[in-house]
Design a protein that fits this description.
eight-stranded antiparallel β-sheet, four-stranded antiparallel β-sheet, elongated
Length: about 180
């Protein structure tokens, strides 16, 4: 075997050894870009459901084949920063908090998750009849300390990056959040 053939065989061996790793890297990059990404909770607006510095999985595909649901925890792109909030009002609904009770279209709706007290809030007082088409009303669980739809207005559905309901880290908090 000549030196050229030996080098060629060595290079082919290296290439064959590297290809599986390149494929794995490409798959991971694809998943990271289009399917799921890690996201860190920054702030306490979702306490006690989510705590500061928890790492979660953000499912970017969650709403490709299913609709948004009331009480989903979502990540919303607001300007240059992501906000983690809970969907309360869906398109076409009237949202009101009266005596610390949520009313959707005039009917009381039970919120079964831990949350802070919500002051009376009726969006019709601000000139809105209901949640506009293609928009949602989303607020944090820590109602006393959350900048959300009560302050920022409705969020367009197209700024919802995905659903965030699984905590990865710290391990002691690992699991689903609803």
């Amino acid at each position: 075997m000549t030196d050229t053939e030996t080098r060629k065989k060595k290079v082919m061996g290296i290439i064959k050894g590297v290809i599986p790793y390149l494929v794995i890297i490409l798959i991971v990059l694809f998943i990271r870009a289009y399917v799921v990404i890690p996201i860190r909770v920054n702030g306490d607006s979702m306490a006690p459901t989510l705590e500061m510095n928890e790492f979660m999985i953000l499912n970017r595909l969650a709403y490709r084949n299913q609709d948004l649901n009331r009480f989903d925890i979502v990540v919303i792109q607001y300007g240059d920063r992501p906000l983690i909030k809970r969907i309360i009002g869906l398109p076409g609904e009237t949202v009101e908090y009266r005596d610390k009770v949520l009313y959707i279209n005039g009917e009381a709706v039970e919120e079964t998750f831990e949350r802070g007290d919500t002051e009376d809030y009726n969006i019709t007082e601000h000139g809105f009849v209901n949640v506009p088409d293609n928009q949602v009303f989303a607020i944090g669980d820590n109602r006393e300390n959350s900048i959300d739809s009560r302050h920022l207005g409705f969020f367009n559905k197209n700024v919802i990056i995905g659903k965030a309901n699984f905590v990865l880290f710290p391990i002691s908090d690992w699991g689903r959040r609803e």
